[in-house]
Protein backbone atom coordinates (compact mmCIF):
# COMPACT_ATOMS: atom_id res chain seq x y z
CA UNK A 1 0.00 0.00 0.00
CA UNK A 2 1.06 3.55 -0.62
CA UNK A 3 -0.34 6.98 0.11
CA UNK A 4 -0.34 9.60 -2.64
CA UNK A 5 -1.65 13.14 -2.64
CA UNK A 6 -3.26 14.42 -5.81
CA UNK A 7 -2.71 18.19 -5.93
CA UNK A 8 -5.24 20.35 -7.74
CA UNK A 9 -5.93 24.06 -7.40
CA UNK A 10 -9.66 23.65 -8.11
CA UNK A 11 -10.67 20.47 -6.29
CA UNK A 12 -8.04 20.79 -3.55
CA UNK A 13 -5.71 18.04 -2.39
CA UNK A 14 -7.02 14.47 -2.35
CA UNK A 15 -5.12 11.79 -0.43
CA UNK A 16 -5.40 8.19 -1.63
CA UNK A 17 -4.13 5.20 0.36
CA UNK A 18 -4.18 1.96 -1.56
CA UNK A 19 -2.34 -0.41 -3.87
CA UNK A 20 -1.67 0.96 -7.36
CA UNK A 21 -3.04 -1.50 -9.94
CA UNK A 22 -3.12 0.48 -13.18
CA UNK A 23 -1.52 3.50 -14.86
CA UNK A 24 -1.74 4.64 -18.47
CA UNK A 25 -0.42 7.80 -20.10
CA UNK A 26 -0.93 9.00 -23.65
CA UNK A 27 1.87 11.59 -23.46
CA UNK A 28 3.75 9.78 -26.23
CA UNK A 29 0.66 8.48 -28.05
CA UNK A 30 -1.84 5.72 -27.38
CA UNK A 31 -0.62 2.55 -25.67
CA UNK A 32 1.10 0.29 -28.18
CA UNK A 33 1.69 3.09 -30.70
CA UNK A 34 4.02 5.41 -28.81
CA UNK A 35 5.83 8.23 -30.62
CA UNK A 36 9.28 9.62 -29.86
CA UNK A 37 8.01 13.17 -29.43
CA UNK A 38 5.69 14.06 -26.56
CA UNK A 39 2.23 15.35 -27.42
CA UNK A 40 1.00 18.89 -26.72
CA UNK A 41 -2.07 17.43 -24.96
CA UNK A 42 -2.45 14.02 -23.35
CA UNK A 43 -4.25 12.03 -20.67
CA UNK A 44 -3.07 10.32 -17.49
CA UNK A 45 -5.20 7.59 -15.89
CA UNK A 46 -4.46 5.79 -12.58
CA UNK A 47 -6.31 3.23 -10.44
CA UNK A 48 -5.67 2.12 -6.84
CA UNK A 49 -7.33 -0.69 -4.93
CA UNK A 50 -8.34 0.60 -1.51
CA UNK A 51 -8.25 -1.40 1.73
CA UNK A 52 -12.08 -1.44 1.72
CA UNK A 53 -12.06 -3.33 -1.60
CA UNK A 54 -13.27 -0.25 -3.49
CA UNK A 55 -11.18 1.51 -6.15
CA UNK A 56 -9.91 5.05 -6.68
CA UNK A 57 -9.73 6.33 -10.27
CA UNK A 58 -7.84 9.51 -11.14
CA UNK A 59 -8.15 10.99 -14.64
CA UNK A 60 -6.03 13.94 -15.71
CA UNK A 61 -6.22 16.01 -18.89
CA UNK A 62 -2.74 17.48 -19.38
CA UNK A 63 -1.45 20.16 -21.76
CA UNK A 64 1.64 22.20 -22.53
CA UNK A 65 -0.25 24.81 -24.57
CA UNK A 66 -0.92 28.45 -23.74
CA UNK A 67 -2.86 31.05 -25.73
CA UNK A 68 -3.13 34.79 -26.24
CA UNK A 69 -5.25 36.63 -23.68
CA UNK A 70 -8.13 37.20 -26.10
CA UNK A 71 -7.82 33.92 -28.00
CA UNK A 72 -10.46 32.66 -30.40
CA UNK A 73 -9.28 29.10 -29.76
CA UNK A 74 -12.23 27.12 -28.41
CA UNK A 75 -12.17 25.46 -25.01
CA UNK A 76 -14.64 23.44 -22.98
CA UNK A 77 -16.54 26.46 -21.66
CA UNK A 78 -15.58 29.25 -24.07
CA UNK A 79 -12.02 30.34 -24.80
CA UNK A 80 -9.23 27.80 -24.35
CA UNK A 81 -7.27 27.90 -21.11
CA UNK A 82 -7.56 29.99 -17.98
CA UNK A 83 -6.07 33.40 -17.16
CA UNK A 84 -2.34 33.16 -16.39
CA UNK A 85 1.01 34.90 -16.70
CA UNK A 86 4.45 33.66 -17.70
CA UNK A 87 5.11 32.82 -14.01
CA UNK A 88 2.33 30.20 -14.16
CA UNK A 89 3.83 28.33 -17.11
CA UNK A 90 5.73 25.07 -16.68
CA UNK A 91 9.23 24.83 -18.19
CA UNK A 92 7.95 22.83 -21.18
CA UNK A 93 5.06 25.19 -22.06
CA UNK A 94 4.45 25.77 -25.76
CA UNK A 95 2.68 28.62 -27.57
CA UNK A 96 -0.51 27.60 -29.37
CA UNK A 97 0.19 27.21 -33.10
CA UNK A 98 -3.25 28.64 -33.94
CA UNK A 99 -3.44 31.93 -31.98
CA UNK A 100 0.37 32.25 -31.77
CA UNK A 101 1.21 34.04 -28.52
CA UNK A 102 4.80 35.16 -27.96
CA UNK A 103 7.42 32.58 -27.01
CA UNK A 104 7.80 32.26 -23.20
CA UNK A 105 11.20 34.04 -23.36
CA UNK A 106 9.49 37.08 -24.94
CA UNK A 107 6.45 37.34 -22.66
CA UNK A 108 6.63 40.36 -20.37
CA UNK A 109 6.32 39.86 -16.60
CA UNK A 110 2.63 40.05 -15.76
CA UNK A 111 1.53 39.84 -19.42
CA UNK A 112 -1.89 38.19 -19.54
CA UNK A 113 -2.18 34.88 -21.41
CA UNK A 114 -4.39 31.79 -21.11
CA UNK A 115 -2.85 28.46 -20.04
CA UNK A 116 -4.46 25.03 -20.31
CA UNK A 117 -3.97 24.04 -16.67
CA UNK A 118 -4.35 20.31 -15.84
CA UNK A 119 -7.93 19.15 -15.28
CA UNK A 120 -8.24 16.35 -12.74
CA UNK A 121 -11.10 14.18 -11.59
CA UNK A 122 -10.96 11.76 -8.65
CA UNK A 123 -13.59 9.05 -8.27
CA UNK A 124 -14.16 6.47 -5.56
CA UNK A 125 -15.73 3.43 -7.25
CA UNK A 126 -17.28 0.57 -5.31
CA UNK A 127 -16.38 -2.09 -7.90
CA UNK A 128 -14.59 -2.60 -11.25
CA UNK A 129 -17.82 -2.00 -13.17
CA UNK A 130 -18.06 1.50 -11.71
CA UNK A 131 -14.46 2.20 -12.79
CA UNK A 132 -15.43 1.14 -16.32
CA UNK A 133 -18.55 3.35 -16.19
CA UNK A 134 -16.43 6.43 -15.31
CA UNK A 135 -14.12 5.70 -18.27
CA UNK A 136 -16.97 5.34 -20.77
CA UNK A 137 -17.40 8.08 -23.36
CA UNK A 138 -20.85 9.10 -24.46
CA UNK A 139 -21.28 10.60 -27.88
CA UNK A 140 -23.87 11.66 -30.37
CA UNK A 141 -22.48 12.48 -33.78
CA UNK A 142 -25.54 13.28 -35.84
CA UNK A 143 -27.24 10.04 -34.93
CA UNK A 144 -28.13 7.92 -31.93
CA UNK A 145 -26.17 8.19 -28.68
CA UNK A 146 -23.32 5.70 -28.36
CA UNK A 147 -21.26 4.51 -25.38
CA UNK A 148 -17.67 3.37 -25.87
CA UNK A 149 -14.28 2.85 -24.26
CA UNK A 150 -11.29 4.39 -26.01
CA UNK A 151 -7.98 2.56 -26.42
CA UNK A 152 -6.27 4.04 -23.34
CA UNK A 153 -9.28 3.15 -21.16
CA UNK A 154 -9.23 -0.42 -22.47
CA UNK A 155 -5.47 -0.61 -21.76
CA UNK A 156 -6.04 0.71 -18.22
CA UNK A 157 -8.73 -1.91 -17.53
CA UNK A 158 -6.43 -4.65 -18.89
CA UNK A 159 -3.60 -3.45 -16.60
CA UNK A 160 -5.96 -3.47 -13.60
CA UNK A 161 -7.07 -7.01 -14.46
CA UNK A 162 -3.44 -8.19 -14.69
CA UNK A 163 -2.51 -6.61 -11.34
CA UNK A 164 -5.64 -7.34 -9.27
CA UNK A 165 -7.32 -10.76 -9.43
CA UNK A 166 -10.49 -9.17 -8.00
CA UNK A 167 -10.77 -6.67 -10.88
CA UNK A 168 -13.39 -8.64 -12.79
CA UNK A 169 -16.18 -7.25 -14.94
CA UNK A 170 -19.21 -9.21 -13.84
CA UNK A 171 -21.47 -10.27 -16.68
CA UNK A 172 -24.84 -8.67 -16.52
CA UNK A 173 -23.54 -5.34 -15.15
CA UNK A 174 -25.35 -2.69 -17.12
CA UNK A 175 -24.19 0.76 -18.09
CA UNK A 176 -26.87 3.26 -17.07
CA UNK A 177 -27.89 5.77 -19.71
CA UNK A 178 -29.96 8.68 -18.46
What would you note in describing this structure?
This protein has 2 domains: 2-62 and 118-163, no CATH class; 65-115, no CATH class. A 5-stranded antiparallel beta sheet has the order 1-2-3-4-11. It has a 4-stranded mixed beta sheet with strand order 8-10-5-9, with no helix packed on it. The protein is mostly beta strands and 178 residues long. The chain is 12% helix and 37% strand. The protein starts with a strand and ends in a 15-residue tail after the last helix.
Give the SSE layout.
Layout: E1 2-6, E2 14-25, E3 41-50, E4 55-63, E5 65-68, E6 74-75, E7 78-79, E8 82-84, E9 94-95, E10 113-115, E11 119-125, H1 128-135, E12 137-139, E13 146-148, H2 151-163
Parallel strand pairs: 5-9
Antiparallel strand pairs: 1-2, 2-3, 3-4, 4-11, 5-10, 6-7, 8-10, 12-13
